[in-house]
Structure formats: C-alpha cells, structure tokens
Amino acid sequence: MNHAIGTLRRGALVALLFTLLAGCATTAANRPAPDVPARHTAAEFRDLRIAYEPDPWEGFNRSMYQFNYYLDHYLFLPVVHGYEFITPVFVQDRVSDFFNNLGEIKNLTNSVLQLKGGETGHTLARFLTNSTVGLGGLFDPATTWGLERRPEDFGLTLARWGVASGNYLVLPVFGPSSARDAGGLAVDGGISYGIYTLADPFRSLDESFTIEAGVATLDAIDTRHQIPFRYFESGYPFEYEMVRFFTRERRELATKK
To answer: Whose CB has fewer CB within 10 Å in the chain, the N or C terminal residue?
Structure first.
C-alpha cells in the first residue's frame, strides 16, 4: 500500500510539474528575448549553412528555447551555484561519479538493443569496475584503466534501426533535441524508472518518498552542474540557429559510431 501511495504521489508531482511548465512557457513566450552582447555581427553568418536548417516547429522551439533560458537563469543555475558554493569539490566529484555510474545501466541496455557486442562488454566491464573497485560508483577507476565512458540512449537505438531523426524540437528543461530523440528520452526514463522500482532501496522506510525526492533533486542538480552550456552567453546574434545546427550535427555523428 505504501508503495502504491508513493507511486501516486510521484505521478501527481510529475503532473504538477508539467502544468507549471506549460504556464511558465506561455509567460516566457510573451517576454522579450534576453539582450545578446554585441560581440559579433549578423554579417558574419549571412551565408553560413546554419541559417538554412529545416525547422518546421520554429515558433514553438524559439519560445521554448527562451523559456529554458529563464528557467535556467532564475531557478536551475542559482541552485547549482549554491550547491557548488557549499559543497567541497571532492564531494561534487563523488556525487557526479555515483550518478554517472548509475547511468551506465542506460548505456548498457541500449548497447544490447543495438547489438553492439564490443560496446556491451566495454560498458559492462566499466560498470562492474566502478561498482566494486570504485566503491559503489563513488570513484571512477575504470577511466584511468582505459575503460572510458561511452554514452548510449534509446534515440541512438532508434537511429540504429533506421528511424529518422524527425523535426528539430526544443524540449522544456531538457533543451535541444528532435522528435526521435524526445521519444527515446521517454523510453530511457521509463526503463530507468522500472529498474529503480524493482530495486527501490528505500521502500521499507517511512519517509521513502521524501528520500526519493531528495535523491532525484540531487541527480537533477548534478546533471546541470556537469553541463557547461549556458543559454544566450555565446555573444552570437544567431545562437538559436547555431545550437540547432550543432545539435543535429552532433547527433548525426553519434549515430555513425
């Protein structure tokens, strides 16, 4: 019964989050774009390929890109900066290594689904090494020993089996993506949730929901902490177009590995 109540609470929390995001997106769409430092001019980009990338959902995408800026600037980054200020770098690194090690389960699952035998063995060896010698993933000796991280996701799995990327899409919170990768993100999230539900190390505790929410929050803070990208800090008047172009190029290269 307690587990069922916890599931209902998580569902309600997710529903509330998306309701708030929808309202905030509408508000952000009506705000003026942030000022871009005039370090570059439009003439530099007039004939570049970035201006001609297909973007059928551009109106929505630009609004969402701007919404993500405000969410990042006024919520995520202040929290991340506070976390970085009060947390010693050594502890930050241990948190990052721990969550990165958990992420190897997603990498392993998708390597299997893509029938990549070598990648599967490599990722499994990395996960087992860091989970044992690395004290439950708190350290990353695998990288030192030549077992570097090889990210995989269900979007790449779909690409492996011939699914086209589809239209460019800027997601709330998650940022630049595509129709295919958005679907892949949902599947990866479902797989991770399913695995966690089966394990659920906090199931027997009275405050299991509070603990789970705290772990999820720390995971979100650490994820943003590890991403150096900042919206509207490039100084380019066509940052949106550049991000769109490089997002597509990066994913295209990733599908050819």
So the answer is: N
